[in-house]
Design brief:
The protein is mainly alpha-helical. The chain is built from 6 helices and 2 strands; from the N terminus they run H-H-H-E-H-E-H-H. The termini are far apart.
Length: 110
């Protein structure tokens, strides 16, 4: 629940999906270690080489790595839209899917 601004957004379905992935081989790279703060993986080198259309969305209340990191990543690729998702932390796509969908639609003209 640390990755969520609103603990009620953590559904049984989300927990089950995280646990399913955490029990698979190579689970050190699953979402569970990321969400509980145990996975530290710098995506900056990969972001710099990204060659497909993308956007960066970031939880406005994210505290595990902080907004400073989100802004640093956005500065590496000023060509990519950077959107803060209000009332969310590390998992805005799960906590505020409507806001994430709206950000995607806005950036793609859809």
């Amino acid at each position: 629940q640390e990755g969520f601004s609103d603990a009620s957004a953590v559904t049984t379905q989300i927990v089950d999906a995280f646990l399913f992935n955490a029990r698979k081989p190579n689970s050190a790279w699953s979402a569970l270690p990321f969400a509980n703060g145990r996975l530290r993986f710098d995506i900056a080198p990969y972001l710099a080489r990204l060659s497909v259309p993308a956007l960066i969305f970031w939880g406005a209340e994210e505290t595990q790595v902080g907004l400073t990191v989100g802004r640093r990543l956005a500065a590496l690729r000023p060509d990519l839209p950077f959107t803060l998702i209000p009332s969310s932390k590390a998992c805005p796509e799960l906590e505020r899917p409507q806001s994430v969908i709206a950000a995607i639609q806005s950036s793609t003209g859809g």
